[in-house]
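Re: weekly structure request thread

Next one in the queue (695 aa):
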Amino acid sequence: MNTAYIPLLNREISQLEFNSRVLAQAEDPKVPLLERLRYICIVSSNMDEFYEIRMSGLKAQLLENPNKILADNLPIKDSYNRITAFAQGLAARQYNLLQKSILPELAKEKIVFQFPHMWNNKQHQWAKDFFYRELVPLLTPIALDPAHPFPRVLNKSLNFLVSLDGKDSFGRNASLAVVQAPRLLPRVVRMPKHLEGPGEISFIMLSSFMQAFVGELFPGIKVNGCYQFRVTRNSDLFVSEDDITDLRSALQGELPTRHLGDAVRLEITADTPDKLVERILDESNLQESDCFRVDGPVNLVRLIQIPDLTDRDDLKFQVATPKIPAVLMNDESIFDTINQQEILLHHPYESFEPVLELLREAARDPKVLAIKQTVYRTGDESLVMDALMEAARNGKEVTVVVELLARFDEQTNMQWAAKLEAVGAHVIYGVVGHKCHAKMLLIVRREQILKGRGKGKSILKRYAHLGTGNYHPRTAKLYTDFGLLTCDPQITSDIHYVFQLLTGTGKQLSLQRLWQSPFTMQDEIIKHIRAETRAAKAGKKAYIMAKMNALLEPSVIQELYRASQAGVKIDLIIRGVCALMPGVPGLSDNIKVRSIIGRFLEHHRICYFYANGLEKVYLSSADWMDRNLYRRVEIAFPILNQVIKQRVIQEGLQVLLQDNQSAWMMQSNGQYLKVKTKSKTLITAQLSLLERIQS
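Done, posted below.
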């Protein structure tokens, strides 16, 4: 399809709009204070990845073809300048909020960041001792001279540019040096309790130690200034599909260079003299527009540990304990329970523990013969992987499809792959060129038929877990996701064939229940949208609801525009990036787009089609993006049980559409306005679900 005629919004601007909404959480005085600090840090983390991936890619396109027209029909140079200005404004908001609101309010609560000018004699002596004991042995000052050119500092590393004056023992003029802080050093240090004020919690930033004592690294040389800086580099890995024969070996060769890609952004303290800023920009091949002069620490991400280091529950969200569904609160085998009924898990309101218990029981149950699972993100420590390794050691046939190209988790996944192989599991790396993003677990169990014609006979029965989120117990407490436990023979048969295609080879088979990318999902989405369009044209009720993280794929957007023009009512809940323009007269009058930003990260993907009253509902791990529909292995699975279907509609869609406290409505120009209400009934979807599900 020719996308030039499809009205689309700029992807990068939309991504920055999302971060602006997250930052608004930090600006909201109703949010607990330490959580406001956490939101500031989340924005910084998001912006790091934005520059490492999106802006680095855009910069490369700009160099390759400065006249290129992007999907939003604007020249790439204009878009790049607009994106840069937006990003600069976002950073200014962050630091202004930190310095003028968050830090002063923390100080009122006796949570204090102690800077050198605030130290008394005892604190100063402790800090100096700490500097000599913990920092000096690990620091390597590099004086800049003809024998020591400007170092290629690592991606996102904390560095100090030190301005010097004097001659050293070799008679060399000392003017400038760089000190890189090793990544293992803590960026924030808690001051000993006996040195804190009454009832006070005091922290010292690593930069404060450096500013106070950096002169100790250059004995006899005058220090004129010490300035923090940080360079963000292109971190997208490139692995040629044509050249590799072993994906793991290819990645092992690429990963060490990730920290040394081309520079895309410089963050530096605002008090740094212009000449020094120009020096770093020149050394990094960056422009002034790529430079962020900040009023505070250059790496706000590292402050995210402060809430966890601070024992002040009154300044955090109230602890929410995920609930175990009542149907699983018994002593019987989880396999027997799934045999009796399908089970829906709604994280983080409900616990991820049943999924872990299913894996543990499968690992130990002598009736279980085989386990197959996809792994995208798991974390450095993983109870999921522990259970899979236990199953392999117990003689089960364990097959794990590990996605080595899960961005920023490549090293972790390679380590898990090696551990799995060491205990005899079959480890597959999926299909080169198509990341395996589907969330599937399949268990094969030998059982006796207990009644009917085949009573007493032995059969192989399949059990499955399908989800919208990763097999990651930590994020299951932070992200909203659905998981389905089922033994439906058609669904489990489909999963078997998907695994067969991933681990072996052959033509795509026709699936009975599942949609699968890159083969059928896009076609099915469009087919169902068109069915609603036909219904609307025939004067029948037509309605689409969809929830996802991102909406970018042009052909799907085009079909949604056509459906709107035919009279289909469309409600979209898009957390992040959205290229569709809602509410444009004659184009998208009937489309509304909202974003929910709250305590938990909205993560489940749901699509609902009225379908002449049948109400078809599918859950998936796939956003409606080019990569998910064409370049990834994804699945969407139907919710067939009527009770569970109504739960998904209510808990995953309708309550979010009723939210009038944490919802933002997208305007046709891509900007967002916070929903305002005159209603006396205040609805915050996530809080409502916490109360409803956990009561």
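Residues 440 and 595 are 27 Å apart (CA to CA). The first helix runs from residue 11 to 27.
Next request, please.
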